[in-house]
């Protein structure tokens, strides 16, 4: 989950929770999860300092919390990407040669 | 962990919850809107949105844990780490907690005393609307007078009707009473005459029976009823409800009188005078018959409840007019025909004052205010001293932990966390100190009250913990913990990891410099306490070594009373018989009597015809023959009193002291001169002798004094000079008095020296406590200085090592460190002296013949502190200089 969220935030800039969900769903139907579980995950990442939140007003004139990736979040994204790559490489390697 | 979140909820969660909820609601609403835009009905869209979102409650719990746990967790970890660090540095922790708890405890005791005496409101209905009346004394230096006569009270009450409800509460008297008629046992109680409406006006309710009303106060002498205070009811009768309706006897010299107990006041009310509790109240109408209509018989305090919508100024102008009218009518009776008119005018136009009585009417307050405020000031200084001491220790330790801090910083700890860590450590210290301080205060405050108490003066200060004290203590703890930790915390958080980990020598001197302001502060506070404490101690030593003009040691005072009522002549005969009888007792060198003890005094106006000053105020003492021999006051001219002078009912012979003779007769012989004016009810007196000066107040130079014979109404206090062991003879004296006359008995035997000591109780208390604080302060400062200076020197070990390696002599290195420390101390001492001189102005009136700026009051504190500094710096400096340069250089 952090990898997905960080990637979306890194590419698209500040987004609120609903927009993040929509983005992930638009790009991939396979990754459809329980929508609400995004929020505890967002809050954990916020406490870890990877993303930060600020209050914005939407086009429908509603108050919402928009999340933005931080410097340490970008570092974390690098780490997560590398880990993901090494895991998938390892799995691919296994699938190919086993 | 959810119980932890729940605890944390108490502090932080409502805001967190709301934010999470808002965010989730926004999500669901956005989804519904999109689904509806896609052509779905509202209800179906909502159902789908909710299903897709999942269990909202569980998700919220999860989010909340994510947000609160790290904070809780770090708090818990910081507390554990803090406790561990404090345990590791046990010596420092103990020193910090000990000094802080001592100072906090001192502050709390002082504050609770001040609060009890000065700030606590009376437990009555709307106390802020209560006022009491005073009037200026003829001499502007004297305190305002607050005693009124019966006719004055009536005039004022009638004049003020409509604006203020005035009522009278007499000065407390201490009659002897018998509750248990069968045994006839007598006891002394504190009784107060009050006008019938007093309880109603105050708004006090009964706990049993009923209280006094105007019905009990109609005709003089016709209402023998009494109300007990709740405290006295509990203490004397164990709260026996059957007490209402019981009769008891009040003993008076002329007659005994039966009174019936009609009720008990509610528990919280113990009179209107803080520090004293009244045992029983009697109706105004039951006063001595001579009180009524007698403008000279002044025993009443006049208190009033100002009516709603009436300003105090209105009340004042009405009462002032009535008071002036009353005095104008009264003046002819008060003064002789040849009194100067300006004196009469001054009497008539005496200003009346309306003073707030919300916190009670107290003579105690006026007497104890200054000593208590001085004590509070010293206690506050102690707190500052202990505070800066602990701040010093913390700061030094933080500097020593720079390595730890910089490591944590470079591993990614937030500066906020480091500040939190330091503040938690100081909060642990402050909290522990606060607890110990409360325990200390619980013991110390009553101890101070008991020190203030004397035999005649049963000061009863109810020092209990109330919300004000709790607020004060919490405030103090909070403040001290933040102040203590802050300097250290800021310093810890401003560490630059790079420089620290690189370890440079420049850092060491920078650290030492950072400590300097605190060392200066600490020295300054310490000097103030030492200086003021020294003044008070030296003043007390001077006071007890002053020659009073009489020889107190070996003199015993016997109070005695008649067993049954008798007339004045019987009483006088008994006094003479007892004096004769005691004179023959072996072991007694001299025997006499005096109306008051030697340090009690009466002041009166006396006019001496033919002198420059027609009328003047003078001290008067009523004594029996043999008094000067008993007290060893030398006779300078003429003769002393003899038995023959006693034979007339209104004796006209007087003896004056040297000061009196010098001041009013100059170089002319005093013996044979006559006075006009009224003394003790008789006119026209002749001086028969002059005696040496004796001080009736040790603090003041001897006052011009007239000695008269004991009036026939007074039984006096027996004075005996014992040639041997004074304590062994006390029982013998009781037996002799009983043998001389079965109608009298001795109620107490006191040594005159003890009496003299008791008159100095305030000075003694102040000197004792101030001296104690000064010593503790000195020790604290020495310990603190040692801690910080030795730390600073250790930091410079490398520098010293280099210098010694380059050929400097060890002594030179030590000297440079010492000069540095001495300079810091001297700066602090200079600040402290300036502060001390400022502070001394507040204690000046308590001082006796002590100059503020003499050598010993300056040299002592300065010398001691400088010595402490030098020792504190020299030991580590010497050690540093002895270190092998190679080791010193390798150290870093």
Summarize the model shown.
Chain A is an alpha+beta fold. Chain A contains four helices and three strands, in the order H-E-H-H-E-E-H. The model of chain A has no long low-confidence stretch (mean pLDDT 81).
Question: Can you give a write-up of this model?
Answer:
The complex is a heterodimer of chains A (98) and B (892). Chain A has 98 residues and is α+β, with helices and mostly antiparallel strands. Chain A has a single domain, classed as Winged helix-like DNA-binding domain superfamily/Winged helix DNA-binding domain (Arc Repressor Mutant, subunit A), CATH 1.10.10.10. Helix content of chain A is 61%, strand content 16%. Chain A has 4 helices and 3 strands. In chain A, strands 1-3-2 form a 3-stranded antiparallel sheet. In chain A, a hairpin with a 5-residue loop joins strand 2 and strand 3. In chain A, helix 1 (2-12) packs across helix 4. Chain A starts with a helix and ends with a helix. The model of chain A has no long low-confidence stretch (mean pLDDT 81). With 892 residues, chain B is an alpha+beta fold. Chain B folds into 5 domains: 2-79, no CATH class; 89-120 and 366-502, no CATH class; 127-358, no CATH class; 505-548 and 751-892, no CATH class; 565-742, no CATH class. Chain B is built from 25 helices and 24 strands. In chain B, strands 4, 5, 6, 7, 8, 9, 10 and 11 form an 8-stranded mixed sheet that branches. In chain B, a hairpin with a 2-residue loop joins strand 20 (674-679) and strand 21. In chain B, helix 16 (568-583) packs across helix 19. The longest helix of chain B is centred in the middle third of the chain and has 40 residues, at 505-544. Chain B starts with a helix and ends with a helix. The interface between A and B is medium-sized, with 20 and 23 residues.
């Amino acid at each position: 989950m952090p990898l997905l969220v960080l990637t979306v935030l890194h590419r698209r800039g500040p987004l609120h929770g609903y927009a993040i969900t929509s983005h992930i769903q638009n790009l991939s139907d396979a990754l459809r999860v329980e929508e609400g579980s995004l929020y505890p995950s967002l809050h954990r990442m916020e406490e870890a300092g990877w993303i930060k939140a600020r209050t914005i007003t939407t086009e429908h004139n509603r108050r919402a919390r928009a999340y933005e990736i931080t410097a340490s979040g970008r570092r974390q994204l690098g780490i997560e990407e590398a880990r993901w790559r090494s895991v998938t490489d390892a799995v691919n390697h296994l699938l190919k040669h086993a | 962990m959810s119980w932890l979140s729940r605890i944390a909820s108490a502090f932080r969660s409502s805001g967190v919850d709301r934010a999470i909820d808002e965010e989730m609601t926004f999500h669901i609403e956005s989804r519904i809107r999109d689904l509806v835009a896609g052509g779905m009905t509202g209800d179906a869209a909502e159902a789908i949105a909710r299903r897709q979102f999942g269990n909202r409650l569980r998700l919220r719990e999860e989010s909340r844990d994510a947000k609160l746990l790290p904070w809780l967790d770090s708090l818990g970890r910081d507390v554990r780490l803090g406790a561990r660090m404090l345990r590791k540095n046990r010596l420092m922790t103990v020193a910090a907690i000990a000094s802080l708890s001592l100072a906090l405890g001192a502050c709390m005791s002082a504050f609770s005393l001040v609060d009890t005496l000065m700030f606590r409101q009376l437990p009555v209905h709307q106390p802020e609307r209560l006022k009491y009346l005073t009037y200026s004394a003829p001499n502007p230096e004297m305190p305002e007078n607050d005693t009124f006569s019966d006719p004055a009270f009536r005039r004022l009450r009638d004049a003020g009707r409509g604006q203020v409800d005035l009522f009278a509460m007499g000065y407390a008297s201490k009659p002897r009473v018998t509750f248990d008629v069968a045994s006839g046992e007598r006891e002394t109680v504190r009784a107060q005459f009050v006008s019938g409406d007093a309880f109603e006006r105050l708004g006090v309710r009964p706990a049993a029976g009923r209280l006094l009303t105007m019905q009990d106060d109609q005709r003089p002498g016709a209402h023998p009823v009494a109300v007990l205070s709740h405290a006295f009811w509990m203490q004397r009768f164990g709260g026996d409800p059957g007490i209402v309706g019981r009769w008891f006897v009040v003993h008076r010299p002329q007659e005994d009188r039966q009174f019936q107990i009609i009720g008990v006041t509610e528990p919280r009310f113990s009179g209107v005078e803080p520090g004293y509790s009244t045992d029983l109240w009697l109706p105004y109408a039951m006063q001595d018959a001579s009180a009524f209509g007698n403008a000279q018989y002044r025993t009443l305090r006049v208190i009033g409840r100002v009516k709603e919508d009436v300003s105090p100024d209105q009340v004042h102008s009405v009462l002032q007019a009535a008071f002036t009218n009353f005095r104008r009518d009264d003046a002819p009776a008060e003064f002789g025909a040849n009194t100067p008119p300006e004196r009469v005018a001054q009497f008539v136009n005496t200003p009346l004052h309306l003073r707030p009585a919300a916190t009670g009417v107290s003579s105690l307050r006026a007497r104890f205010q200054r000593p208590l405020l001085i004590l509070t000031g010293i206690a506050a200084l102690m707190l500052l001293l202990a505070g800066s001491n602990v701040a010093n220790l913390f700061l030094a330790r933080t500097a020593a932990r720079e390595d730890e801090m910089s490591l944590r910083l470079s591993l990614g700890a937030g500066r906020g966390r480091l500040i939190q860590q330091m503040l938690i450590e100081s909060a642990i210290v402050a909290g522990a100190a606060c607890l110990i301080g409360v325990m200390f205060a619980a013991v110390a405050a009553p101890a101070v009250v008991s020190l203030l108490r004397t035999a005649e003066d049963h000061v009863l200060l109810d020092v209990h913990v109330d919300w004000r004290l709790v607020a004060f203590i919490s405030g103090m703890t909070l403040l001290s913990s933040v102040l203590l930790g802050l300097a250290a915390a800021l310093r810890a958080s401003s560490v630059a990891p790079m420089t620290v980990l690189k370890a440079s020598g420049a850092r060491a001197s920078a650290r030492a410099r950072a400590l300097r302001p605190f060392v200066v502060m600490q020295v300054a506070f310490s000097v103030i306490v030492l200086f003021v404490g020294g003044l008070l101690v030296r003043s007390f030593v001077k006071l007890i070594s002053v020659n009073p003009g009489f020889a107190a040691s070996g003199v015993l005072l016997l109070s005695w009373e008649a067993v049954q009522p008798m007339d004045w002549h019987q009483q006088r005969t008994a006094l003479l018989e007892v004096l004769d009888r005691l004179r023959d007792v072996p072991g007694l060198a001299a025997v006499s009597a005096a109306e008051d003890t030697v340090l009690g005094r009466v002041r009166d106006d006396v006019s001496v015809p033919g002198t420059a000053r027609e009328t003047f105020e003078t001290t008067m003492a009523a004594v029996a023959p043999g008094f000067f021999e008993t007290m060893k006051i030398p006779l300078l001219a003429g003769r002393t009193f003899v038995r023959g002078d006693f034979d007339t009912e209104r004796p006209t012979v007087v003896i004056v002291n040297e000061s009196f003779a010098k001041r009013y007769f100059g170089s002319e012989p005093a013996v044979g001169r006559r006075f006009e004016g009224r003394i003790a009810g008789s006119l026209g007196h002749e001086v028969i002798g002059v005696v040496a000066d004796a001080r009736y107040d040790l603090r003041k130079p001897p006052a011009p004094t007239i000695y008269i014979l004991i009036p026939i109404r007074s039984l006096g206090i027996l004075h005996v000079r014992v040639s041997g062991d004074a304590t062994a003879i006390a029982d013998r004296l009781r037996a002799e008095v009983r043998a001389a006359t079965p109608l009298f008995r001795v109620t107490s035997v006191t040594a005159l020296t003890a009496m003299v000591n008791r008159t100095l109780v305030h000075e003694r208390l102040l000197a004792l406590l101030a001296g104690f604080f000064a010593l503790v302060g000195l020790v604290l400062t020495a310990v603190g200085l040692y801690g910080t200076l030795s730390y600073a020197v250790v930091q410079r070990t490398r520098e010293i090592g280099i210098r010694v390696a380059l050929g400097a002599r060890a002594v030179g290195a030590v000297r440079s460190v010492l000069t540095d420390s001495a300079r810091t101390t001297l700066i602090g001492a200079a600040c402290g002296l300036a502060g001390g001189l400022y502070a001394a102005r507040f204690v000046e009136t308590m001082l006796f013949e002590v100059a503020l700026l003499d050598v010993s009051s300056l040299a002592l504190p300065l010398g001691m502190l400088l010595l402490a500094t030098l020792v504190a710096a020299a030991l580590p400096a010497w050690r540093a200089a002895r270190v092998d340069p190679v080791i010193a250089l390798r150290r870093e």
